[in-house]
Inverse folding.
């Protein structure tokens, strides 16, 4: 059974950092693209970042470029989103997901349950 579980969310002050992890079970994560998404209250879900498996390409939303870094740890079957210089507008529930394809461009079929990130002083 394919399952994704996010962890690492929490409360952090503006300018702080958090490290989110997406742990996979039921499949080998390094064969597939993994994306991170977020949804703030009253807003639509938006794509934050993605890492492909075909060539390791990474993609970032303009709002997080230069602050967030996505990476794989294939030995642990996880994908990590390092978030630095956090802003209040980064507050949201963060989800990882996979299209079960090597490219980030496909429809995402499997989703985690989400982890809350709150940036506030």
């Amino acid at each position: 059974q394919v399952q994704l579980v996010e962890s690492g969310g929490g409360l952090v002050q503006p300018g702080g950092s958090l490290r989110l992890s997406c742990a996979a079970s039921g499949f080998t994560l390094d064969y597939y693209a993994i994306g991170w998404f977020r949804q703030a209250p009253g807003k639509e879900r938006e794509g934050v970042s993605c890492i492909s498996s075909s060539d390791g390409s990474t993609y970032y939303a303009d709002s997080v470029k230069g602050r967030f870094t996505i990476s794989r740890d294939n030995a642990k079957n996880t994908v990590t989103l390092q978030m630095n210089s956090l802003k209040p507008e980064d507050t949201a529930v963060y989800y990882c997901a996979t299209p079960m394809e090597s490219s980030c461009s496909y429809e995402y079929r499997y989703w985690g349950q989400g982890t809350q990130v709150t940036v506030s002083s």
